[in-house]
């Protein structure tokens, strides 16, 4: 049995991880620590028994220390982060505070509990990061590996790079038992509708434009969130202490192709289920028009990295990781989830509209 703190566990990837861990380890203690900012959602944890949600900030070192002592925590799985690149361009301060100072707060609390008090308790601090810390690839460049030099290009990726370095330093300097994973673009259930796939799906259902940055040929490696959570579980259980593991989906696609998959998937769903036209009358597909008619091209984002690709040889060879889905299967599952869970995403859209007034 393990006793876990999952930071950011009411967010997108964190909540999916909590669902997975509760299923595979039902007797473990799980404390979710989440500030419940705009992207955190209590509803993401609905249906889970024995999971305690603590609303709090990872920068509150005293709170983290108290939770660790009260629950004899031996594992921290650190998802909590500001993660939207566009927001980091308009408001970078929050990214430095949460991603750098917040991670350092957790590391200090972990070092105190696990090392300074001399308990000798076996422990693990797993830090979840991003492939964006490696910068941008040219069309013929080799994929990012764990030895690729860091070259972050946005305030978001720079703040994550800083947090990665702190985790590494706490292992090498103090002996904290850490692991880090750098993942590619995630998608799947519970993703806040500011990221490409849920944003475009919900825009398609409401007849809003599908804004494509630049020429739409920026390339990303797409990873279903449940495959990502499998990778994290393997690292926590069997990964070598102090190591970094890249987790990818092996699905390298230009954004334009992803948008085309979304449009085709929505059109096919409406053709197969006539009730969708009654539920979403503003969708072009409800009016016999192609969803692709909503595509528009907008000015490219500042500092927009051209291509990301993950070399996941290390996690495959050492830990037996293998994603279960290709992108067409993963997207079909994701689209079905959003169509079946309007009660989850409608309140988020209403809240966003109210906040925009």
Describe the model.
The model has no long low-confidence stretch (mean pLDDT 94). The chain has helices at residues 12-24, 61-70, 85-90, 93-116, 155-174, 196-206, 225-238, 255-272, 275-279, 313-319, 327-340, 342-356, and strands at 3-7, 29-34, 51-55, 75-78, 124-130, 178-183, 185-187, 210-213, 219-224, 244-247, 252-254, 295-298. Helix content is 44%, strand content 16%. The protein has 357 residues and is of the alpha/beta class. It is globular. Strand 1, helix 1 and strand 2 (29-34) form a beta-alpha-beta unit. Helix 2 packs parallel to helix 4 (93-116), helix 4 packs parallel to helix 5 and helix 8 (255-272) crosses helix 11. The strands form three sheets. Strands 3-2-1-4-5-6-10 form a seven-stranded parallel β-sheet, with helices on both faces. A three-stranded mixed β-sheet has the order 7-9-11. It has a domain at 3-190 and 222-251 and 307-326: NAD(P)-binding Rossmann-like Domain (Rossmann fold, 3-Layer(aba) Sandwich). The protein contains twelve helices and twelve strands. Belongs to the NAD(P)-dependent epimerase/dehydratase family. dTDP-glucose dehydratase subfamily. This is dTDP-glucose 4,6-dehydratase. Keywords: Lyase, NAD. It holds the Pfam family GDP_Man_Dehyd. InterPro entries: dTDP_Gluc_deHydtase, NAD(P)-bd_dom, NAD(P)-bd_dom_sf, Sc_DH/Rdtase_CS.
Give the C-level CATH assignment of the domain at 3-190 and 222-251 and 307-326: Alpha Beta
Distance between the termini: 48 Å
Shape, principal axes of CA atoms: globular
Biggest sheet, spatial arrangement of strands: 3-2-1-4-5-6-10
Tell me about the biggest sheet? 7 strands, parallel
| CATH topology call of the domain at 3-190 and 222-251 and 307-326 | Rossmann fold
Total beta strand runs: 12
Q: Count of helical segments?
A: 12
């Amino acid at each position: 049995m393990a006793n876990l703190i999952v930071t950011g566990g009411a967010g997108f990837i964190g909540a999916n991880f909590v669902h997975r861990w509760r299923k595979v380890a039902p007797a473990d203690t799980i404390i979710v620590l989440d500030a419940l900012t705009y992207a955190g959602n209590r509803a993401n944890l609905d249906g889970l028994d024995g999971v305690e949600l603590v609303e709090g900030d990872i920068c509150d070192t005293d709170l983290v220390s108290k939770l660790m002592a009260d629950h004899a925590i031996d594992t921290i799985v650190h998802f909590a982060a500001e993660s939207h690149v566009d927001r980091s361009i308009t408001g970078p301060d929050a990214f430095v505070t949460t991603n750098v100072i917040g991670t350092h707060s957790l590391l200090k609390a972990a070092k105190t509990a696990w090392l300074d008090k001399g308990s000798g308790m076996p422990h693990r601090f797993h830090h979840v990061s991003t492939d964006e810390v490696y910068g941008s690839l040219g069309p013929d460049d080799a994929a990012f590996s764990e030895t690729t030099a860091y070259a972050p290009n946005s305030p978001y990726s720079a703040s994550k790079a800083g947090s990665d370095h702190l985790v590494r330093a706490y292992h090498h300097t103090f002996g904290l038992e850490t692991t880090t994973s750098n993942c590619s673009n995630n998608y799947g259930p519970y993703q806040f509708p500011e990221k490409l796939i849920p944003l475009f799906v919900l825009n398609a259902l409401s007849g809003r434009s599908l804004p494509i940055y630049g020429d739409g040929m920026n390339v990303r490696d797409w990873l279903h969130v449940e495959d990502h959570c499998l990778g994290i579980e393997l690292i926590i259980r069997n990964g070598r202490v102090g190591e970094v593991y890249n987790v990818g989906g092996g699905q390298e696609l230009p954004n334009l192709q992803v948008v085309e998959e979304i449009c085709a998937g929505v059109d096919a769903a409406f053709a197969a289920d006539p009730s969708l036209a009654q539920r979403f009358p503003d969708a072009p597909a409800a009016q016999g028009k192609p969803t692709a008619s909503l595509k528009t091209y907008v000015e490219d984002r500042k500092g927009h990295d051209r291509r990301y690709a993950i070399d996941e040889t290390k996690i495959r060879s050492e830990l037996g990781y293998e994603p279960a889905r290709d992108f067409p299967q993963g997207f079909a599952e994701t689209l079905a989830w959003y169509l079946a869970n309007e009660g989850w995403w409608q309140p988020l859209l209403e809240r966003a509209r109210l906040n925009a007034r």
